[in-house]
Amino acid sequence: MKILLATHNKHKLEELLKILPAEDNKGNKIEYVSFLDFPQIAEPQETGTTLKQNAQLKAVYGLKQTGLISIADDTGLTVDALGGAPGVHSARYAYPDKADYPANNEKLLKELSAFKGKERSASFTTVAALALPDGNIIFKEGKVSGFIAQDYSGKNGFGYDPLFICAETNKTMAEMTPQEKNSISHRARAFAQLSEIIKGL
Predict the structure, then answer these.
(1) Catalytic amino acids?
(2) Domains in the chain, please, with CATH?
(3) What is the pLDDT of residues 33-77, one digit of tens each?
(4) Rounded distance between C-alpha atoms, residue 129 and residue 54, angstroms
(5) CA nearest to 185, candidates 138, 133, 131, 123
(6) Is the separation of the CB atoms in 188 and 166 below 8 Å?
(7) Which pLDDT tens digit goes with each residue over 24-37?
C-alpha cells in the first residue's frame, strides 16, 4: 500500500515517518511518499478558517493530484493572552504569504512581552485528515497544553518548539528528544489515532 503525506515540509515529514506504522495489520509494508516526490505539484492554498478545513483541503488536494490515499494535517498554536492567536495562522503568523519560523517566534515573543508566568498559557492542536478514494475523510485530533517561554530553549524540533513549554514535562518541545516529543506531542497524539485506521485499510 502506498500513501501520500500531503506536505512539502521536510521537518514535518521526518516526524510523521517516525510516528506512522510501517506495516498494516496483515504484515504488508506501507510505503509513504510526499509532495517532495512530485515536484510538479504546487503547494495547495490553505484557505480554510479552521484547522480541520485546512487539513481536509490538503488531504483532498493530494488525493486528486496523485490518486493515492492521502494524509494531511494542520496545526495551530493557541495563546490565551492573545485571544487564541496565532491559531489557524500559526505557520504564517509573521508574514501572510510565507512560513518563516524565526520571524514567527520573534513576533510571538514581542506580542507576549508584557505577560508573565501563567499569563502565557497556550496549547498546540493538530487535526489530521485521511482522504480515501471512495470519498470518505477521517479526522483525528491531538492536543497538548503548556506555556510560552520567555526565551528560546532547546535545539530539536522546528517551528514554535523552542518556545513552547509542555506542561507534562516542563520542557520546551525543542528540549525533548525526538522520542520524547513523539510520545506526547499534539501531532503524535493525532497520528497515533490515525495509525490504527491506516493499519486496517
Answers:
(1) 74
(2) 2-199 (3.90.950.10)
(3) 999 999 999 989 889 999 999 999 999 999 999 999 999 999 999
(4) 9
(5) 123
(6) no
(7) 999 999 999 999 99
